[in-house]
Specification:
The protein is an alpha+beta fold. The chain has 8 helices and 25 strands. It has helices at residues 6-16, 64-73, 105-113, 128-135, 184-190, 228-240, 253-260, 317-326; strands at residues 2-5, 32-35, 39-43, 47-52, 60-63, 78-84, 87-92, 95-100, 122-123, 147-151, 158-163, 167-172, 180-182, 198-202, 205-209, 215-219, 243-248, 274-279, 283-290, 293-300, 311-316, 329-334, 341-347, 350-355, 357-358. The strands form 4 sheets. An 8-stranded antiparallel sheet has the order 5-2-3-4-16-15-14-9, sandwiched between helices. Helix 1 (6-16) runs antiparallel to helix 2 and helix 7 (253-260) packs antiparallel against helix 8. The longest helix is centred in the middle third of the chain and has 13 residues, at 228-240.
């Protein structure tokens, strides 16, 4: 019998949940927690997570969702676990339970092929997760969905990049990094685990290691297909273009966003929570709507504008929150050959470009 603190087991399971398959899968055991003497593992062919768990003698796999729910509801500080194949017995407080073990032979083999024991680790450059979180804000469905990493145009450092049909985001890193491209759903799960310290790349997989020894692995997209040169050209042109208008987002933007965003929803099938910005001479108007109603608020500029831009842009609520926190600057530019003007938001180490419409 093995005895584990409930909190220790819960924390390990929570870290591994991104690797649990919640839908149909051809891989038996993709929906399981796999216990080995030193680690808890999950693997679903897109994401794999391994986290240290000292439980000598505890080996085998059980349905992840059932175990997580059960342990969460056991009213006791310690959980007793006994493996008696083909069952696992759990007890804690007044609760006793039995769970049927799952054959996770294939999952164990797949995890072994990741090569985690022999991986060569490199230190992640500073600002990696901050850049990922900001660039995540332009990851709505598009052919280029996801987060890419490539060298900056001058080759000194790496940069994180993302784009959708109407936005481009770039976050600068404090050092170099191997080029890569990962999909948007993977980024969602990655952001749940905090800040990794090291990375390694092997075959079709990216591995990120955390200070506590947890390893988050995810499938890579073909980064050769990400148009880095065109991307950098578009950003450089917008940054260098003469400004039609410049300013700084108002200091009261954060509080206004919190109020208006209660009525925000996606548009054109997007799952993002979007707010319309209308740039007026007297202030920045926020507007959001959904099936049950709408809300708007005019936020005065801290420094009055010298003209009425008459421009509109839809932006993600999460971006507005970050923009309010970072007091971002903006400029309105017109790129040669483009039918619309572009808003360029900037803060230290970050740029987001957003296409605009004319106020009707």
């Amino acid at each position: 019998m093995i005895t584990l603190a409930k909190t220790t087991l819960q924390e390990a399971m929570k870290k591994c949940m991104p690797g649990v398959e919640t839908g149909a899968s051809l891989i038996v055991g993709a929906d399981a927690f796999l216990f080995t003497p030193s680690y808890l593992h999950t693997y679903n062919d897109t994401i794999a997570v391994s986290t240290p768990l000292a439980a000598e003698g505890l080996e085998g796999a059980v349905k992840a969702a059932d175990l997580y729910k059960l342990v969460t509801k056991i009213n006791a500080p310690m959980i007793n676990i006994e493996v008696n194949a083909p069952e696992v017995k759990l007890s804690g407080g007044r609760t006793n339970a039995r769970m049927t073990m799952i054959d996770a032979t294939r999952v164990k083999e797949y995890i072994s092929t990741l090569g985690l024991e022999t991986a060569e680790w490199k230190k992640l450059p500073g600002g990696f997760m901050d850049a990922v979180k900001l660039c995540k804000l332009s990851c709505n469905p598009s052919p280029l969905r996801g987060i890419a990493v490539a060298a900056s145009p001058d080759g000194t450092n790496a940069q994180v990049m993302s784009t959708d049909q109407s936005r481009i985001s770039v976050g600068s890193l404090q050092g170099g990094m191997d080029p890569l491209w990962i999909d948007d759903p993977v980024v969602n799960d990655l952001m749940k685990l905090g800040d990794p310290a090291e990375y390694s790349m092997g075959g079709a997989w990216l591995h990120l290691k955390y200070a506590d020894g947890t390893i988050f692995s995810c499938k890579l997209k073909d980064c050769a297909q990400f148009p880095v040169t065109l991307f950098n050209s578009a950003v450089s042109s917008a940054v260098a273009a003469p400004a039609i208008l410049t300013g700084r987002l108002p200091k009261d933007l954060l509080e206004a966003t919190a109020r208006v965003s209660t009525m925000a929803s996606g548009i054109d099938g997007s799952s993002a929570s979007l707010v319309r910005l209308t740039f007026k001479q007297e202030g920045l108007e926020l507007y959001a709507k959904k099936d049950t109603g709408d809300a708007s608020e005019l936020v005065p500029w801290d420094q009055p504008l010298d003209q009425d831009p008459g421009k509109v842009a839809w932006v993600d609520t999460s971006f507005l929150v970050e923009a309010g926190r970072k007091a971002m600057d903006f400029k309105l530019v017109h790129s040669e050959g483009s039918e619309t003007d572009t808003l360029v938001f900037t803060s230290e180490g970050f740029i987001q470009m957003v296409s605009t419409d004319v106020v009707e």
